């Protein structure tokens, strides 16, 4: 009888161990499933929160409006001899001179005083000097910049108001009368 009790206890322990094993495996699988459900739910929420990008506009195809046309000989003005060329250019220069308003010439020395450097601060003077392509360093003070700009005005044949961005429309270029006469 002792053997039967011993066998029953072993069998009972074996069945208990198998029950505990299956119970722990089921609990483990349940935790894995809960984790997987949480991840899937987070992904779904993120996708719903994202803005839906606007649909792409329909693709436009290249449309050819018209085929290229050849230049007709009647559309081309021919200049045959050199006399015609010089006459053509002289006519162009005269027509431009006739269309533009007469401009009063002022000597270059008079332009020097048109810019009031004394009312400008150091930054404005530095910007003006850089616009005139003068070498400016950070160490230069206001007096140095004033001297540099005044020397530039004395050495420059370009009026300072033209360098400053003033209107030079219609102003004749020096020597343009000589070019017109030579042609």
What characteristics describe this protein?
mainly alpha, 2 domains, 183 residues
Task: Describe this entry's structure for a reader.
This protein is mainly alpha-helical and 183 residues long. It folds into 2 domains: 1-46; 81-99 and 106-182, no CATH class. It has helices at residues 2-49, 82-99, 108-112, 122-131, 142-155, 160-163, 176-182. Helix 4 (122-131) packs parallel to helix 5 (142-155).
Average residue pLDDT: 75
Query: Strand count, sense and closure of the main sheet?
Result: none
* Structure classification: mainly alpha
Give the N-terminus to C-terminus distance in angstroms. Answer: 142 Å
Number of strands: 0
Q: Classify the beta-strand content into a percent band.
A: under 5%
Rg, nearest Å: 46 Å
Number of DSSP helices?
7
Question: pLDDT below 50 for ≥5 consecutive residues: which ranges?
Answer: 159-176
Shape: elongated
List the helices and strands in order. HHHHHHH
- The amount of helix comes to 55-70%
Overall number of structural domains: 2
